[in-house]
Every structure is written in C-alpha cells, then in structure tokens.
Amino acid sequence: MTRSDASALLLDQAQDKIALLDDEGRFTYVNAAAERILGFAPAELLGDVAFEYVHPDERDAVEAAFRRTVDTGDFTEESIEYRHRAADGSWVWLESRMSNLTDDALDGYVVSSRDITDRMRAERERAETASHLREIAAVSSDVLWMFDADWSELLFANPAYEEVYGTPIEEVRRDPETFLDAIHPDDRPAVEEAMEALSAGSSVDMEYRVNADENYNRCVWVQGEPIVEDGEVVRITGFTKDITDRRRRERQLVVMDNLLRHNLRNDLNIVLGEVEELEAEIPDSAERTAVIRRVGESLLSTAQKEREVIELITDGRETDAIDLRNVVEEAVETVRERYPEGSIAVEGLDAVAVEGRCELRSAVIELLENPFQHSNEGTPTVTVSLRRTEAGAELVVEDDLPPIPAVEANVLTGDHDMSQVYHSSGLGFWLVYWSVELSDGDIAVEPGEEGNEVTISLPLASD
Questions:
Q1: I want to staple 432 with a disulfide (CB 3.0 to 4.6 A). Which of 208, 363, 374, 377 is the partner?
Q2: Phi first, then psi: what are they for 215, rounded to 5°?
Q3: Residue 413 and residue 397: Cα distance in Å, rounded?
Q4: In b/e form, how buried is each residue of 6-37, taking b as 16+ CB within 10 angstroms?
Q5: Among residues 205, 172, 177, 202, which one has the least CA distance to residue 190?
Q6: Closest-CA residue to 109 (of 98, 125, 96)
Q7: Which pLDDT score, from 0 to 100, does residue 134 have?
Q8: What confidence score (pLDDT) does residue 330 get?
Q9: pLDDT reported for residue 424
C-alpha cells in the first residue's frame, strides 16, 4: 500500500466530510463521509462545482468566503455555515472550514465539513420558543423578570414591570439597585433577604408592597427561582403578580366579618340574657325560652364557624405535615365529651402523616359531630377509620342516618354553586370542604339506605 493509499484510507474513516477544491471550486477529492452525511458516493461529486450544491440563499456567501480564502496571500482560514443539498433532495446543514494551505502534494484547497443539522434545528426551535415567550411576555399582565446571579444586571423584564412597580425598565437596567426603591421601605429587609436566598440557590415565594408613585398601595405576589449550571447559580428568574384587588377584598372581608361577628355576638348575648330573666319571672315559659336559647346558641356557634372559614380562606399559610392519626384521636375524644350519650366506634387508625392545613382538625371534628347535631330521633352511631394508602391517606366517617341532602353533599364534594351556601343548613360542611381543598385533598360522599359514608383523601406529607 502506498503512502497515498494509506492517507486516503485514513481520511475515509473520518467523521467529517473532507474535500479538495480547485481554483474554480470543483471537487478533486471527497472522502467516504460524503456518502454517510449527504448520500452521495464520492465519485458522484468529483468534477462538479461545489457551490452548485449549496442552497440558493447561502450560495453567494459561501462562494465569497471561498474566494476570500484562496485569494489571500498569507495563510488564512474561514468557517461558514450553510445548507448543502443531499442525494434525496433534502438539505443538510454543514459547518465548513476552508483554508488556502496547499502544496504540490495536494490537488486543491482543503475544505472540512461537519453535519450540524441537529444543532441548527435545536437552535431554530429555541429561537421560535424564545419568540413565542417574548410575545406572551409582551401582553402578560404579570411581570416576568431575570437578573444575573448577584443582582448586578437586569437581563430581562417585560413591559408589565413599569405598570406594576412604577419604575422605568431602562432605569433598572442602568442601575439594578433602583429595583429596591420601588419596594415599600418596611418590606425591603425581607426582600433583600429573599434576594440573598435566591443567589444562594433557594427558591422564594413571598408577598410585598410596591410602587412609590401609588404610595406603595400595590401588593404583589412573587415567586423566584435560581438557575443553576454546574452547581453554581448563574441567573435568577421569576414572576410578579399584582394581587392588590385580592388583598383589598380580603381586608374588606375581614372588616365585615369582625363587624358582623361583633354585632351578632353582642346582640345574641342580650337576647340570651333576656331569656334568663324571662325564665326567672315566668316559670311556665321554659319550653318556649328553650327554643330561643337553642336558636341563639346555634347562631353563636355559626358565627364562630364563620370566623374559622374567613381565617381559612384569607390566610396565606402553606400546608404542613400533620399526624392525621393523632388528629382523629383528639377529634374523637372532643366529640365524645360533647355528646357523651353518643356512640363513636373506631375501626383502625393507621399511622400516617399527611400534607395539609391545620384547619383539618376542625374539619374532622365537624364530620364526627354532624350526625349528632342532625339526628331527629334516637342516638346515631358513628364509625371512623383511617387507612394509609399508596398515594396518602383515607379518612372514612360513617353514620346510620338518612341520606345527607344533595345540597349538603354537593358542598362537601365541591359540586356546588356558591349561591347554595344560603340554602345549606350551616357553615360546618363549608369549613370541611375548604380545609380539604386547601390541603389538596378530595371528598367523596356515598349516601345509602343504611347511612352515609364520607371519605376524605389527603396526600402524604413530603419527607
């Protein structure tokens, strides 16, 4: 085997297409990679002008690059990306490196080309995705933002930033520290602490007040995430949602709740006080005053449940790990003390911790005592069990009462219209429903001829 034959054999093993072009750009040599990349046998290309295979949109640029390279007196090389026609008529993206290095042993100029079709496709997809994201960001009312790892450079913010924070984006781009000027002075320490946490690699979920031009009366909810590469935070991104209206409604709800509950409690205490005086002055009135007392005390109990419901739906607390078996055991004891004549049977309580809101304790008590509150004849029998499942836990409460009315059952399962609250018998089931919903759980109700079965499913607590 000659040295030339050996060199050709080695070149045929190369992954890149290696070609020699003469002064006119004709192929004088092509290695075997041409067939693998383009589908052309090397012999099919010999003698052809290489530029005839280049996509029309890039042909002039490729030919100009070749001419610049071969016409330069000193050694030079140049790289260019373009589409090359394949044997089946499709187009393959190549990155070619050409140089003017030649000698008597080389029959032309060396052009080395590698297939970059996958890379170009991925870049195109990323560009299209980025374009779509920019379009979404441009019309989004939420603020989308990105800073570098140490908050020294604003990398991106959509137009909603100026509306919510009241600060021009260009001002923050010039001096990122002005970002803090848009935050209420009392909230800045917490925000600065959150920024340090993000730079250290932790996620952030918080609320604070912004917009000095509006006297910091805007309230926002912010979620931030660190972008980590090779174990280091390289960027910080997140979104800001204007929750001013929601917070205003919550404050209004709390004010109305306090006013209503205060007035209701005071007025009912007056009524119950008058009842005591009537009973003392008119002994024969006990039967009628008992009705007044029962209704008044029920209204006071409803007011207390209303307080729990308001706190539940306005409190932004996160879920936590809850020992559900302990909760059920405590609830059973509480209801037994309230209804000593009642019967609560416990049929197995598996040890299980669930992810939920602390109000689940009140919800379990409500489910257990509801049969005693609504039993018209005799004393109901209530059975409770707790099973650990693969997905979490199932708490089952059974009774031997007539079927729960549909309007009440629909409150528990969520198959309701909010206006139905005025037609249901009380707020207890609403407390159960919202407690379970905010704990990412589900409720199923199975009414039957021999009683009702209410099942609450809750997710397992995370490790």
A1: 363
A2: 60, 35
A3: 14
A4: eeeeebeeeebbbbbbbeebbbebbbbbbbeb
A5: 205
A6: 98
A7: 67
A8: 92
A9: 46
Q: Which two tokens stand for residue 390?
A: 């693969």
Distance CA 285, CA 274 (A): 12
The pair of three-digit structure tokens given for residue 234, joined into one six-digit string: 């390289």
Q: Measured between alpha carbons, how far is 166 from 189 in angstroms, rounded to an integer? A: 20
Instruction: Give yes or no for a contact between 261 and 306, defined as CB atoms under 8 angstroms apart.
Output: yes
Which residues of the chain are under the pLDDT cut of 50?
1-4, 6, 419-424
pTM, entire model = 0.46
pLDDT at position 139, please?
65
Distance of CA 64 to the CA centre of its chain: 51
